[in-house]
Description:
Layout: H1 4-15, H2 19-38, H3 41-62, H4 68-89
Helix pairs in contact: 2-3, 2-4, 3-4
Amino acid sequence: MRPAFLRFFHLVSLKLQEEDKVRHMVWSFWLTLGALLLWSAPLAFAAVFLLGLAKECWDFRFGSGFCLFDMAGNFIGSTAGLLCGMAFSALPF
Length: 93
């Protein structure tokens, strides 16, 4: 029997392949890149993450329910956007 945390990460990797979770990652990625044009990196990341949290709270109240895996997709997409934005800003143009 695998330890519980290994089962959890295996489940996360399976859930993040769903179309809805991929959409969360893609939107968070692009929103973070856009936010980096306006704000500093911590503020851009926080704004996009809180926007995703607000969307999940809306879903909890009026939609399909709060989904921790959607929030994981938001976090992964925002982190990737933040890293790409920081890498692009470090290029000597």
